[in-house]
Amino acid sequence: MACESEKWVLMVTAQTPTNIAVIKYWGKRDEDLILPINDSISVTLDPEHLCTTTTVAVSPSFDQDRMWLNGKEFSLSGGRYQRCLKEIRSRASGFEDEKKGVKITEKDWENLHVHISSYNNFPTAAGLASSAAGFACLVFSLAKLMNVKEDHGRLSAIARQGSGSACRSLYGGFAKWIMGKNDDGSDSMAVQLADEKHWDDLVIVIAVVSSRQKETSSTSGMRESVETSKLIHHRAKEVVPKRIVEMEEAIKNRDFESFAHLSCADSNQFHAVCMDTCPPIFYMNDTSHRIISCVEKWNRSEASPQVAYTFDAGPNAVLIARNRKAAALLLQRLLFHFPPRSDADLKSYVIGDKSILQDVGVQDMKDVDALPAPPEIKDNIAAQKYKGDVSYFICTRPGRGPVLLSDESQALLNPKTGLPK
Ligand SMILES: Nc1ncnc2c1ncn2[C@@H]1O[C@H](COP(=O)(O)OP(=O)(O)OP(=O)(O)O)[C@@H](O)[C@H]1O
Ligand SMILES: C[C@@](O)(CCOP(=O)(O)OP(=O)(O)O)CC(=O)O
């Protein structure tokens, strides 16, 4: 190693997207290695609107591994963090930068400590898959820092050990997590099905539904389902394998009708499994159910589906529209049923790609109040409004996979001290 007294700090910054499953992962066959009982498929969300940025640094002057999450020191003692660090360290290779006077041999990595600072540009632990983007970014950035020469598939198998769904965030576009058969998990990894340009008509609207923190985490919820639900085993054996084949085909052919049917059916079955768990787990709430009804009614009134919906382990709706026109018509309906509180400002009620508001034809709250009831609604009850039941909407699209950020101004650690900026 370069002279211990030298104060060099070597740093890497990366940005990684989050993802939403359209064929759900729910249930493990190995809790420690995080091995699932079925394959899953996801859409990667545009990191411009939802992403994690992580800077990792190494220096002979660091005396322990440390992490900061959204600016606050965060303990790395959890088994999942330790596992990811260990797996990456064991694959590290030597590195030399003569100009900086940095020389690290393969062996040195065992004794060198890292500093990690990570920031989510969206709420953490709010049902928007921050753990997926977070672990993918941690593994990707550490792998770059430690000169790990493994492909994205191998890295995805490491991210999987942080949080299962994280393995799919190593790719843009559409990803499949292959459950694998091996007991050691070596064949349980994600692959890319298609990149983000393949189906760029799709527009994604996320309704962030007001709720308290969820009572059952995904990790414990799926454990309880595996232990108590019969439906989950039928789903994993009989239902998901067929759906995976059909979903891959739908994505390949940009067949929105099949894509929508499969996504909605799979989300509904996942929530049915939660209900079939003892005691039952309720992730969706009344607002989630109202959003489903609104989409189902509209889809049924059209010749073919305009929007797919899917819900993870929480009440937030992820709505995938076949194109921008359908997304604007969807948002008209959603703003009609779920207007913001009177004191809210429209600009902070619809975030992400706000240009959608022009297509919707609303500029301010007056325009929202004037929106007509959707034409497919025939009775007064169905035309009801639920002011304030949605916290805000995020408008986004399918997006790219992890990238390195070379501009030092985007780093979250100070290049001289290795401490948060
Ligand atoms: N940027 C990050 N880097 C590393 N770990 C993170 C990061 N962001 C979140 N996490 C981890 O993920 C945890 C939150 O995961 P949790 O599953 O509770 O919420 P979520 O992933 O945001 O929502 P959901 O799983 O319901 O979609 C945090 O407590 C932290 O351990
Ligand atoms: C409903 C889901 O979002 C469940 C995600 O579960 P996690 O990946 O958060 O669980 P752990 O592997 O225990 O960390 C469906 C999915 O993303 O496929």
From TrEMBL:
It catalyses: (R)-5-diphosphomevalonate + ATP = isopentenyl diphosphate + ADP + phosphate + CO2. Its main location: other. Keywords: ATP-binding, Isoprene biosynthesis, Lipid biosynthesis, Lipid metabolism, Lyase, Nucleotide-binding, Peroxisome, Steroid biosynthesis, Steroid metabolism, Sterol biosynthesis, Sterol metabolism. Performs the first committed step in the biosynthesis of isoprene-containing compounds such as sterols and terpenoids. Residues 17-190 form the Diphosphomevalonate decarboxylase-like N-terminal domain. This is Diphosphomevalonate decarboxylase. Its EC number is 4.1.1.33. Pfam families: MDD_C (PF18376), MVD-like_N (PF22700). One of its GO terms (molecular function) is ATP binding. Belongs to the diphosphomevalonate decarboxylase family. InterPro entries: GHMP_kinase_C_sf (IPR036554), Mev_decarb (IPR005935), Mev_diP_decarb (IPR029765), MVD-like_N (IPR053859), Mvd1_C (IPR041431), Ribosomal_Su5_D2-typ_SF (IPR020568), Ribsml_uS5_D2-typ_fold_subgr (IPR014721). It is found in: Peroxisome. GO terms for cellular component: cytosol; peroxisome. The lineage of its organism: Eukaryota, Viridiplantae, Streptophyta, Embryophyta, Tracheophyta. One of its GO terms (biological process) is isopentenyl diphosphate biosynthetic process, mevalonate pathway. Residues 204-404 form the Mvd1 C-terminal domain.
